[in-house]
Amino acid sequence: xxxxxxxxxxxxxxxxxxxxxxxxxxxxxxxxxxxxxxxxxxxxxxxxxxxxxxxxxxxxxxxxxxxxxxxxxxxxxxxxxxxxxxxxxxxxxxxxxxxxxxxxxxxxxxxxxxxxxxxxxxxxxxxxxxxxxxxxxxxxxxxxxxxxxxxxxxxxxxxxxxxxxxxxxxxxxxxxxxxxxxxxxxxxxxxxxxxxxxxxxxxxxxxxxxxxxxxxxxxxxxxxxxxxxxxxxxxxxxxxxxxxxxxxxxxxxxxxxxxxxxxxxxxxxxxxxxxxxxxxxxxxxxxxxxxxxxxxxxxxxxxxxxxxxxxxxxxxxxxxxxxxxxxxxxxxxxxxxxxxxxxxxxxxxxxxxxxxxxxxxxxxxxxxxxxxxxxxxxxxxxxxxxxxxxxxxxxxxxxx
Length: 400
Hints:
Layout: H1 5-19, H2 28-35, H3 39-42, H4 44-57, H5 60-67, H6 69-88, H7 93-121, H8 126-154, H9 158-177, H10 192-196, H11 200-227, H12 232-261, H13 263-283, H14 288-316, H15 321-349, H16 353-372, H17 389-399
């Protein structure tokens, strides 16, 4: 607990950043009702955010290797502050969609450098820094929907302004107390992540994740509409349970499962279980209790899968771990961006059951891609050690 002020400042900013994963879930129905938007239009908030985040992941290594960690961190925080505040003050769904894109860019820059900054500034060694970082990750994921629900009770604008205010505080503290950080000796090329996808094993895992994200973001983005819960707090509590399960599974359960059973068998099992949950939700889309239980339980499968798949990405490719992770993240976020839009369109035109069918089929297709291409998923290097920066980076990339 005896850490420099700079470490606590970055950890605090990390909590708020990870809160953004589930912050908007409880207020989606309120935004749609207040602005007269359809489900499909409202879910474009996820599409713009994820689409830009995915593209930005291809650029973060290039940017941070030239600006240094502190400047990249500050740039990301400033973008989040500005675009979160602009989203909160918007009067149209189109404006919020655009500002969420800018928010996604800032989040990508922040996530790319937060871990390295904490590791470099923490006292007590790398292991202590990793504990702090993963604690911030878990707290942010779990607390995001709850905070969004509480602030959403006042107004749907509350979570946006709350994020902007908290990130502004973190930015000021980091400017004052975080020492300047050196630039890496070898800058990263813009083309490195794209070239990394030429590897068959990495491409197999990335396409699997692209399809799996149809299920992930159907659950995350469309379920608030299917639940038909008017109270943002009650809706936030449902996704608080989801976030808590996801955080516990990603940080503590996933590493143990993969060391015991291996990555591909664990991923295959998680995809199978998740597809079954989505199929049950499609069949019982009018039963609120089934949707609530399915959403919370799915958090366990999602947390395990996110972490194990991301660590697998860094093992199957000969590319640098950061480069392989960036390439994979860009592909899988593209799947999430398409899925959120498609779920809204299907929900508007066919009913609440249709998005869950899309999600189940997407996850099943991802499982088929993994099974058919598993001969190319060959480990080129050992898995990151437990409690190492590489494993923490995998956990972050998986959940961010």
